[in-house]
Amino acid sequence: METVPVDLPEKHYRIHIESGLISRVGTLVAELWTPRKIAVISDRNVAPLYEQKVIKQLIAAGFQVTAYQVDAGESSKSWQTAVQLFEKLAEDHFTRSDGVLALGGGVVGDLAGFVASTFMRGLALIQMPTSLLAQVDSSVGGKTAINLGTGKNLVGTFYQPDAVLIDPDTLNTLPQRYVAEGYAEIVKMAALEGGTFWQVIEQINRPKEILEHANDLIQKSVAFKAGVVMDDEKEHGRRQILNFGHTIGHAIELLADGQLAHGEAISIGMVRLTQIFENYRLSPRGTTNMLTQRLKAVGLPLVSSLIGTSAFYEKLKNDKKNHGSRLNLVYLKALGQPALYPIEIDKTQSFLSGKGQ
């Protein structure tokens, strides 16, 4: 089993990565928690695949388990769904001594994490991500969130789990589109780190090769992100580099109204932003092509007609990453050399349309 430590000033935990890990989740949780009630929160796609296996093991390990299911998809990352879960936890008499296990993809992880962090001012939390996107990105770092109609992740907390339990075998039930979606975040982190990580993804030329190298790709991604989070847990400085591609990506993901998966939007965002910075000669010539080759190899989208519309720029104004009247765009001085480019929000349209720095 691969183990990646996350050591923060107020929290120390481990990210465990192992094929077949789901078959001994009861033992692993019992090593972390004393007997208590556990709320297993999942969605209606993931629950039929893994929920009963997880519940049986937790019960065998001495836990009392209640399962809650939400609709699959981004629409569940809402205040309405969070309140429904709050009410169910209260009805089932959960207390601050109990815990939440998030079993699912990024939506479930964000939602369950938000609920755990706020119900009774905080229940213990374990993340058990089952999608590639969640395994390499959203389950690591302690961000929780729900969406509002005006933007993604506008209400949330920083709340670190007691552990992250990753079983790469769960990816075998994931549709190819969502394997590729998660891979977009791997490409992002490889571009940010450069070096041997980038060399590894240069060997991925077909979607099936993502699964063949899943353990290594997950470990490298998690180790990189954990290192960034340990440097800057609350995103005051270096952690902002993880937003590479996300400013454009979040805007078009919202405008696409469910037609673009998160990783697909980030793929488009990275490519478009790098094109812009390359045109301004702030990123080296050829950087866009290197990104495009890696994303295109697994069938990820590279362009969107939503970029540049009036609605697109309106979404940028409501981005949670804004700092007052300023937005920090993440770009690449070179592979492995990310940097922040601060720009006034009222100048964003001119900058992104190529009309001047």
Automatic annotation (TrEMBL):
CDD domains: DHQS. NAD(+) binds at residues 106-110, 130-131, 143, 152, 170-173. Binds 1 divalent metal cation per subunit. Can use either Co(2+) or Zn(2+). Its EC number is 4.2.3.4. The keyword Nucleotide-binding applies. Residues 182-322 form the 3-dehydroquinate synthase C-terminal domain. It catalyses: 7-phospho-2-dehydro-3-deoxy-D-arabino-heptonate = 3-dehydroquinate + phosphate. Zn(2+) binds at residues 185, 246, 262. This is 3-dehydroquinate synthase. The gene is aroB.
